[in-house]
Amino acid sequence: MSRRMIACAALAAIGIAFGCVSLLVYLSNGHPRLIARKLKLGAIILSLTAMLGTACTTPSRVTCYMPAPPDRVAVDPDAFVDNVIWLVLAESNEIAGTILDRDSSEFSFCLIDAEVSVIQEGELAAQDGAMDEAEEEFTIVIDPGTPVGGYALRFYSVPMAEIVIGNYIAEFPVEIRETSGR
Question: Which of 18, 82, 116, 174 is within CB 3.0–4.6 Å of 151 for a Cys-Cys bond?
């Protein structure tokens, strides 16, 4: 019989004992000695359920938590209006962002339209010149000749030559406007 099965059987037996002692506490109008036993049994139940409920019981796991996924992309929150990146090319054609928990050494981006046609693509360059930190800031310059309309900005953790359109790590909707009004 495995340790887990023994712990489950013990938990069931202690649970029954806890129920019996709880009934005796009620019938004795709160006898102090019975309350102390009820508290001890409750502490044992909490300890056993904590041991049974942890993710570290299997030998294949290294940690009890899930690490953050690598190569997350965050775009400057000031660029968003209603969860869409708004660009008025007459005012600015730059999108700033940060790569968080960087694992890859090269990144690229792709601006696509509704028909998944590539409008613009390029390599992401770190503002400090090298992709060597856990967090790297970048700026994308959108071509000023891009037509007004809705697009998707996709990020990839591979060089531009290795982009596969469906294998992006992040995607943000982009709305290119003539004016900043809605």
Answer: 174
Pairwise CA distance, residues 21 & 38, whole Å:
6
Sort residue 103 into left (φ over 0), alpha (ψ -120 to 50) or beta: alpha
CA-nearest of 139, 150, 144 to 89 is 144
Per-residue pLDDT tens for 98-153?
A: 999 888 889 999 999 999 899 999 999 888 888 888 899 999 999 988 999 999 99
**Gap between the Cα atoms of 182 and 165, Å rounded:** 30
Phi and psi, residue 75, nearest 5°: -100, 145
Are 34 and 24 in contact by the 8 Å Cβ rule? The answer is yes
Residue with tokens 């400057």: 76
Token output for 160: 């531009």
Under DSSP, the state recorded for 68 is: P
Which residue in 133, 129, 141 sits closest to 99, CA to CA? 133
Radius of gyration of the chain (CA): 29
Q: Which residue has the higher pLDDT, 157 or 182?
A: 157
Lookup result for tokens 């489950």: 8
